[in-house]
Amino acid sequence: MKKIGLLILFVISHQTFGQSLEKTLLWKITGNEIKETSFLFGTIHITCKEELPVKVIHALKETKQLYLELDMDDPSLQMAMMNGMMMKEGTTMSSLATKEDFRIVDDFLKKQLGLSAQMLNSIKPFMVSAMLYPKMIDCEMKSVEEGLVSLSKEQNEEIYGLETIDEQLAVFDAIPYEVQMNELIKSAKNNLEGDKSEIDLLFETYQSEDIEAMITLMRTSENEISSKFETIMLTERNKKWVPRIISIAKEKPTFFGVGAGHLGGENGVINLLRKAGYKVDPVF
Q1: Rounded-to-integer distance, Cα 18 and Cα 148, Å
Q2: What is the mean pLDDT of residues 116-133?
Q3: How would residue 13 be classed by pLDDT, with cut points 50, 70 and 90?
Q4: What is the pLDDT of residue 20?
Q5: What is the pTM of this model?
Q6: Taking burial as the number of CB atoms within 10 A of a residue's CB, which of 6, 55, 119, 191 is the most buried?
Q7: CA–CA dist 9, 15 (Å, integer)
């Protein structure tokens, strides 16, 4: 039933956005005052392998610097992330749940992470959920970004971020803590079964390189953070990134790697760049 609903919404999304975007994760950016071609690539933050497609390796070799969502090479990144994990105004997970639900989460976290909910009580629930990602996949967790960073270092190229860690962490202050906690409770109650199913579908969709289907997948997700907060998670960030991408691409041929969910849709990076007068063409 869920797959039928996904198919229906996928068809609707294609009608809404007009001409469908081609099925590829790699796009080249040219036009206006861009003198040398830059590339835009859709990444996935959780994967079982970090090997890069040949076309991506070629694109990296044709550019002179790498821009990810964050500067993954910044030695202060981990400390800054740790500092931004806490909820504001003294909010705690126990204050966002009933006693029974907090007990369920506590038992669940002890089983999965070896940590009590009380120890993590002040951390944003989304961050606690992120700690569970390795438990959702049947392999050692990697990311496409790791592969991009590794190759860029081999080429002695600089690595930068389109946004600061503070900007990214602000997203999870804008999404109500109650919603984040409710998702953590759901994960605890179904012992990650729903999360594992969604991750499997995400992997399958990513491998198909269908970026419009990825948008539809997010909008039909049973996780309310994905399905109800597209404006905060994607749209607002895309609109901030596009002027930065344009400015950077004018200065130097650049490889931009951002989450694949940011590429498609009416307010995706591809469409926003085209609206700004730039050519964004698929690379197969």
Answers
A1: 32
A2: 96
A3: very low
A4: 83
A5: 0.89
A6: 6
A7: 10
C-beta atoms surrounding 143 within 10 Å: 16
Q: List phi, psi (to 5°) of 282.
A: -70, 145
The owner of tokens 């730039």 is 278
Higher pLDDT, 68 or 141: 68
138 DSSP assignment: S
The two most distant CA atoms of the chain are separated, in Å, by 61
pLDDT at 7 over 70: no
Burial profile 41-65: b = 16 or more Cβ within 10 angstroms, e = fewer: bbbbebbeeeebbeebeebbeebbb
Give me 165's structure tokens. Answer: 């860690």
The first and second tokens of residue 103, run together, are 């007990």
Residue 120 class from Cβ within 10 Å (0-12 exposed, 13-18 middle, 19+ buried)?
Answer: buried
Please report which residue ranges of the chain form alpha helices under DSSP H: 2-17, 54-62, 77-83, 99-113, 125-131, 133-136, 144-154, 165-174, 177-189, 193-207, 211-219, 224-228, 230, 236-251, 269-275
CB 171 within 8 A of CB 232: yes
Angle at CA of residue 271, ends 274 and 208, nearest 5°? 125
Query: Does 12 score more than 70 pLDDT?
Result: no
HSE at residue 10, side-chain half, CA atoms within 13 A, is 15
Question: Is there a contact between 17 and 215 (Cβ–Cβ < 8 Å)?
Answer: no
